[in-house]
Protein backbone atom coordinates (compact mmCIF):
# COMPACT_ATOMS: atom_id res chain seq x y z
CA UNK A 1 0.00 0.00 0.00
CA UNK A 2 1.16 3.53 -0.84
CA UNK A 3 0.23 6.07 1.82
CA UNK A 4 0.58 9.85 1.74
CA UNK A 5 0.70 11.58 5.12
CA UNK A 6 0.47 15.22 6.11
CA UNK A 7 -0.46 17.33 9.14
CA UNK A 8 -1.03 20.94 10.22
CA UNK A 9 1.46 21.11 13.11
CA UNK A 10 4.42 21.13 10.74
CA UNK A 11 7.10 18.80 9.41
CA UNK A 12 8.93 18.60 12.77
CA UNK A 13 5.86 17.97 14.94
CA UNK A 14 5.99 14.96 17.29
CA UNK A 15 2.52 13.88 16.19
CA UNK A 16 3.79 13.43 12.64
CA UNK A 17 6.34 10.91 13.91
CA UNK A 18 3.48 8.99 15.53
CA UNK A 19 1.58 9.07 12.24
CA UNK A 20 4.65 7.87 10.34
CA UNK A 21 4.78 4.80 12.58
CA UNK A 22 1.04 4.18 12.12
CA UNK A 23 1.36 4.53 8.35
CA UNK A 24 4.39 2.21 8.18
CA UNK A 25 2.45 -0.48 10.04
CA UNK A 26 -0.53 -0.13 7.70
CA UNK A 27 1.60 0.01 4.54
CA UNK A 28 3.44 -3.15 5.47
CA UNK A 29 6.96 -4.31 4.54
CA UNK A 30 6.42 -3.87 0.80
CA UNK A 31 4.53 -0.60 1.09
CA UNK A 32 5.55 3.04 0.82
CA UNK A 33 4.94 6.00 3.10
CA UNK A 34 5.34 9.45 1.56
CA UNK A 35 5.36 12.58 3.72
CA UNK A 36 4.43 16.04 2.47
CA UNK A 37 3.88 18.34 5.44
CA UNK A 38 3.88 22.10 6.05
CA UNK A 39 7.28 23.67 6.58
CA UNK A 40 5.75 25.73 9.41
CA UNK A 41 2.76 25.24 11.69
CA UNK A 42 -0.57 25.70 9.94
CA UNK A 43 -3.04 25.09 12.76
CA UNK A 44 -6.47 26.63 12.25
CA UNK A 45 -6.21 27.12 8.49
CA UNK A 46 -9.07 24.67 7.79
CA UNK A 47 -9.33 23.82 4.08
CA UNK A 48 -7.28 26.79 2.92
CA UNK A 49 -5.37 26.55 -0.36
CA UNK A 50 -2.64 28.94 -1.51
CA UNK A 51 -4.55 29.98 -4.62
CA UNK A 52 -3.02 33.45 -5.06
CA UNK A 53 0.69 32.81 -4.44
CA UNK A 54 3.19 30.02 -5.09
CA UNK A 55 4.75 27.84 -2.41
CA UNK A 56 8.24 26.45 -2.14
CA UNK A 57 8.68 22.71 -1.70
CA UNK A 58 11.88 21.05 -0.49
CA UNK A 59 12.94 17.40 -0.38
CA UNK A 60 14.30 16.67 3.10
CA UNK A 61 14.99 12.98 2.59
CA UNK A 62 13.70 9.87 0.83
CA UNK A 63 9.91 10.27 0.37
CA UNK A 64 9.93 13.23 2.77
CA UNK A 65 9.02 16.77 1.67
CA UNK A 66 8.19 20.10 3.31
CA UNK A 67 6.00 22.67 1.57
CA UNK A 68 5.38 26.29 2.48
CA UNK A 69 1.64 25.87 2.47
CA UNK A 70 -1.44 24.49 4.19
CA UNK A 71 -2.26 20.80 4.69
CA UNK A 72 -4.59 20.94 1.67
CA UNK A 73 -1.71 22.46 -0.32
CA UNK A 74 0.51 19.60 0.82
CA UNK A 75 -1.99 17.02 -0.40
CA UNK A 76 -2.13 18.77 -3.78
CA UNK A 77 1.68 18.89 -3.89
CA UNK A 78 1.85 15.21 -3.05
CA UNK A 79 -0.63 14.17 -5.73
CA UNK A 80 0.53 16.38 -8.58
CA UNK A 81 4.24 16.96 -7.97
CA UNK A 82 5.75 14.46 -5.55
CA UNK A 83 3.74 11.37 -6.63
CA UNK A 84 2.35 12.27 -10.08
CA UNK A 85 2.86 8.84 -11.64
CA UNK A 86 1.27 6.69 -8.94
CA UNK A 87 -1.43 8.10 -6.67
CA UNK A 88 -1.53 6.93 -3.06
CA UNK A 89 -4.03 4.32 -1.91
CA UNK A 90 -4.71 6.25 1.31
CA UNK A 91 -4.13 9.72 2.77
CA UNK A 92 -3.66 10.18 6.53
CA UNK A 93 -3.55 13.59 8.21
CA UNK A 94 -2.26 14.16 11.76
CA UNK A 95 -1.70 13.13 14.42
CA UNK A 96 -2.81 16.57 15.59
CA UNK A 97 -1.71 17.81 19.00
CA UNK A 98 -5.11 18.63 20.44
CA UNK A 99 -8.64 17.58 19.61
CA UNK A 100 -10.47 18.28 16.39
CA UNK A 101 -13.87 17.42 17.79
CA UNK A 102 -17.00 19.53 18.08
CA UNK A 103 -16.80 22.97 16.47
CA UNK A 104 -12.99 22.64 16.27
CA UNK A 105 -13.53 20.47 13.20
CA UNK A 106 -14.59 23.54 11.24
CA UNK A 107 -11.24 25.28 11.79
CA UNK A 108 -8.94 22.27 11.60
CA UNK A 109 -6.12 22.15 9.06
CA UNK A 110 -5.77 18.47 9.90
CA UNK A 111 -9.30 17.84 8.68
CA UNK A 112 -8.68 20.21 5.76
CA UNK A 113 -5.94 17.91 4.49
CA UNK A 114 -8.18 14.85 4.68
CA UNK A 115 -11.03 16.77 3.06
CA UNK A 116 -8.87 17.74 0.08
CA UNK A 117 -7.84 14.12 -0.38
CA UNK A 118 -11.50 13.07 -0.37
CA UNK A 119 -12.33 15.76 -2.93
CA UNK A 120 -9.54 14.29 -5.06
CA UNK A 121 -11.28 10.91 -4.91
CA UNK A 122 -9.00 9.24 -2.34
CA UNK A 123 -9.73 7.44 0.93
CA UNK A 124 -8.73 9.79 3.76
CA UNK A 125 -8.63 9.82 7.54
CA UNK A 126 -7.80 12.70 9.91
CA UNK A 127 -6.37 11.74 13.31
CA UNK A 128 -6.11 13.93 16.41
CA UNK A 129 -5.01 13.43 20.00
CA UNK A 130 -7.14 15.07 22.70
CA UNK A 131 -5.03 16.62 25.47
CA UNK A 132 -5.86 16.64 29.17
CA UNK A 133 -4.38 16.27 32.66
CA UNK A 134 -3.90 12.51 32.29
CA UNK A 135 -1.77 12.66 29.13
CA UNK A 136 -0.33 16.16 29.12
CA UNK A 137 3.11 15.02 30.30
CA UNK A 138 5.51 14.92 27.36
CA UNK A 139 6.10 11.17 27.33
CA UNK A 140 2.37 10.38 27.25
CA UNK A 141 0.86 13.08 25.05
CA UNK A 142 0.30 10.80 22.04
CA UNK A 143 0.14 7.52 23.95
CA UNK A 144 -3.48 6.71 23.02
CA UNK A 145 -2.90 7.50 19.35
CA UNK A 146 0.32 5.49 19.26
CA UNK A 147 -1.26 2.51 20.99
CA UNK A 148 -4.51 2.40 18.99
CA UNK A 149 -3.86 4.36 15.79
CA UNK A 150 -2.94 1.51 13.47
CA UNK A 151 -5.77 -0.72 14.70
CA UNK A 152 -8.27 2.11 14.26
CA UNK A 153 -7.13 2.86 10.71
CA UNK A 154 -7.15 -0.84 9.81
CA UNK A 155 -10.65 -1.20 11.27
CA UNK A 156 -11.87 1.69 9.13
CA UNK A 157 -10.19 0.35 5.99
CA UNK A 158 -11.71 -3.11 6.48
CA UNK A 159 -15.14 -2.21 7.84
CA UNK A 160 -15.81 1.46 7.08
CA UNK A 161 -17.93 2.86 4.28
CA UNK A 162 -15.84 4.06 1.35
CA UNK A 163 -18.29 5.36 -1.21
CA UNK A 164 -17.70 6.85 -4.64
CA UNK A 165 -20.01 9.83 -4.25
CA UNK A 166 -19.02 13.24 -5.59
CA UNK A 167 -18.57 14.42 -2.00
CA UNK A 168 -17.19 11.17 -0.75
CA UNK A 169 -16.95 10.17 2.88
CA UNK A 170 -13.78 10.73 4.86
CA UNK A 171 -13.23 10.10 8.56
CA UNK A 172 -12.34 12.22 11.57
CA UNK A 173 -10.76 10.25 14.43
CA UNK A 174 -10.10 11.68 17.90
CA UNK A 175 -8.18 9.74 20.54
CA UNK A 176 -9.19 10.39 24.16
CA UNK A 177 -7.05 12.43 26.61
CA UNK A 178 -5.77 9.40 28.50
CA UNK A 179 -2.94 6.89 28.20
CA UNK A 180 -3.34 4.03 25.78
CA UNK A 181 -3.95 1.36 28.41
CA UNK A 182 -7.03 3.22 29.69
CA UNK A 183 -8.85 3.57 26.36
CA UNK A 184 -12.36 2.13 26.73
CA UNK A 185 -12.94 1.27 23.09
CA UNK A 186 -14.27 2.92 19.93
CA UNK A 187 -17.52 4.76 19.27
CA UNK A 188 -18.98 6.13 16.05
CA UNK A 189 -19.89 9.67 17.05
CA UNK A 190 -21.63 12.57 15.30
CA UNK A 191 -19.95 15.95 15.56
CA UNK A 192 -20.88 17.68 18.80
CA UNK A 193 -21.14 21.32 19.82
CA UNK A 194 -19.69 22.88 22.96
CA UNK A 195 -22.22 25.36 24.34
CA UNK A 196 -20.87 28.83 25.20
CA UNK A 197 -17.38 27.92 24.01
CA UNK A 198 -16.32 30.35 21.30
CA UNK A 199 -13.14 31.67 19.75
CA UNK A 200 -12.45 35.30 20.52
CA UNK A 201 -9.62 37.81 20.59
CA UNK A 202 -7.34 39.12 23.32
CA UNK A 203 -5.68 42.50 22.65
CA UNK A 204 -2.05 43.23 23.56
CA UNK A 205 0.06 46.34 23.09
CA UNK A 206 3.50 45.99 21.53
CA UNK A 207 6.52 47.96 22.84
CA UNK A 208 6.05 50.30 19.88
CA UNK A 209 2.53 51.14 21.00
CA UNK A 210 0.70 49.20 18.31
CA UNK A 211 -2.23 46.97 19.17
CA UNK A 212 -2.10 43.28 18.25
CA UNK A 213 -4.87 40.73 18.67
CA UNK A 214 -4.32 37.12 19.71
CA UNK A 215 -7.01 34.61 18.77
CA UNK A 216 -8.15 32.94 21.98
CA UNK A 217 -9.99 29.63 22.21
CA UNK A 218 -12.53 28.48 24.77
CA UNK A 219 -12.34 25.61 27.28
CA UNK A 220 -11.85 22.25 25.58
CA UNK A 221 -13.33 20.02 28.26
CA UNK A 222 -16.93 21.25 28.20
CA UNK A 223 -18.94 18.13 27.31
CA UNK A 224 -21.20 18.05 24.29
CA UNK A 225 -24.49 16.19 23.93
CA UNK A 226 -24.06 12.57 25.12
CA UNK A 227 -23.12 10.28 22.26
CA UNK A 228 -21.29 12.98 20.28
CA UNK A 229 -17.54 13.21 19.65
CA UNK A 230 -16.38 15.43 22.53
CA UNK A 231 -18.54 13.60 25.05
CA UNK A 232 -17.34 10.18 23.88
CA UNK A 233 -13.67 11.25 24.02
CA UNK A 234 -14.05 12.64 27.53
CA UNK A 235 -15.55 9.31 28.58
CA UNK A 236 -12.40 7.55 27.37
CA UNK A 237 -13.46 6.34 23.93
CA UNK A 238 -11.91 6.83 20.51
CA UNK A 239 -14.46 8.80 18.49
CA UNK A 240 -14.87 8.14 14.77
CA UNK A 241 -16.97 10.64 12.81
CA UNK A 242 -17.85 10.12 9.13
CA UNK A 243 -17.77 13.44 7.25
CA UNK A 244 -18.45 14.92 3.82
CA UNK A 245 -17.38 18.24 2.33
CA UNK A 246 -20.99 18.93 1.23
CA UNK A 247 -22.14 21.89 3.39
CA UNK A 248 -25.78 21.74 2.31
CA UNK A 249 -28.31 21.65 5.16
CA UNK A 250 -30.25 18.82 3.55
CA UNK A 251 -32.80 18.67 6.38
CA UNK A 252 -34.13 22.13 5.39
CA UNK A 253 -34.41 21.69 1.62
CA UNK A 254 -38.03 20.44 1.45
CA UNK A 255 -39.30 23.07 3.92
CA UNK A 256 -37.44 25.90 2.17
CA UNK A 257 -38.81 24.83 -1.21
CA UNK A 258 -42.34 25.18 0.19
CA UNK A 259 -41.52 28.61 1.54
CA UNK A 260 -39.65 30.14 -1.36
CA UNK A 261 -40.50 28.44 -4.65
TrEMBL record:
Its EC number is 3.1.3.5. GO terms for cellular component: cytoplasm. Gene3D superfamilies: Survival protein SurE-like phosphatase/nucleotidase (3.40.1210.10). A divalent metal cation binds at residues 8-9, 43, 96. Coiled coil: none annotated. It is found in: Cytoplasm. It is an enzyme of class 3 (hydrolase). It catalyses: a ribonucleoside 5'-phosphate + H2O = a ribonucleoside + phosphate. GO terms for molecular function: 3'-nucleotidase activity; 5'-nucleotidase activity; exopolyphosphatase activity; metal ion binding; nucleotide binding. Signal peptide: none annotated. Binds 1 divalent metal cation per subunit. Keywords: Cytoplasm, Hydrolase, Metal-binding, Nucleotide-binding. Pfam families: SurE. It comes from the Bacteria. InterPro entries: SurE, SurE-like_Pase/nucleotidase, SurE-like_sf. Its cofactor is a divalent metal cation. Residues 3-195 form the Survival protein SurE-like phosphatase/nucleotidase domain. NCBIfam families: PRK00346.1-4 (NF001490), PRK13931.1 (NF010541), surE (TIGR00087). Nucleotidase that shows phosphatase activity on nucleoside 5'-monophosphates. Belongs to the SurE nucleotidase family. This is 5'-nucleotidase SurE. It comes from Actibacterium naphthalenivorans. The gene is surE.
Amino acid sequence: MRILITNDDGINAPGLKVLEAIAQEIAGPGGEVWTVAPAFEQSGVAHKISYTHPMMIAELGPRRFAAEGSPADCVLAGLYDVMPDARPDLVLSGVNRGNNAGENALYSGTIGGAMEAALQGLPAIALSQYMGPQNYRENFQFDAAAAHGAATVRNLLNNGLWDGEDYRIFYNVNFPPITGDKVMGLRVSPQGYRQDCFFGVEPHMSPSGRKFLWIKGGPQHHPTTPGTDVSDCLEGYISVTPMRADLTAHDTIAWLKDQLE
